Amino acid sequence: MKIKKTFGMAALGLLAMLPLSSIAADSLSAKGSLVCASIHVLACDADNHCMQGPPSSFEVPYFMFVDFDKKEVRATSDEGNIAISPIKESHVTDQAIILQGFENGRGWTLAVGRADGKLSLASAGADIHFAISGNCTEM
Amino acid sequence: MKINKAMFTRAMGAALVASAISVSPAIQASETGAFVGGILAGKVVHNMRQRTEAEQQQAYYAQQQAQQPVQQAAPAASGQSTEQKLAELDKLAAGGYITPAEYKAKRQAVIDSM
Q: pTM for the whole thing?
């Protein structure tokens, strides 16, 4: 388990260091699948009390997968279970792929820069809203 | 240079796929529900609440500590038993509000006053 985590962390580090130019060789399209690595999490409550840190400090998954064919975003929890969010809306512009969803009283928007693969995921609920930044690349 | 970059990107892709498979046993795993509005939001909310509670607890202990000199000014009036004093010292040491040396000295003083 420790080896798996170490390997995952190493891959995450490599993805974070990946020169943007190498991703940018071809701009990302909304076809097939993307693998995205979370790098930073910022969460705030309704009283503007905010906390931020790496995904590990919130125990959120480091990797998430965007499947354009199945129209879903998924990740695997620490316990090894797959969690899926259906994509309700998707918009592709020259600059970004924008996906939106809604579940359990919470809305979310995931945007990926087509040129650089930069990820922004924001989710808002009545209690807490949070944003995750990271990088994506085609699988 | 261009070939090296392409090779690097391919190697990265392979590493990521391998890590994704090793970190996420996707095939064997069972589906548990929502991701963003489910486990993701759940973990963020849970960890934020936990950290907020810890901060509030820390602030409470700091406030208690700030009020302590007033309470210590009248030790006879407080009527604390030796057991209570020792328990309070244990609490302060566990919370990191006094150093091990201070704890030891105070503990000895309480025992000596018996």
A: 0.60
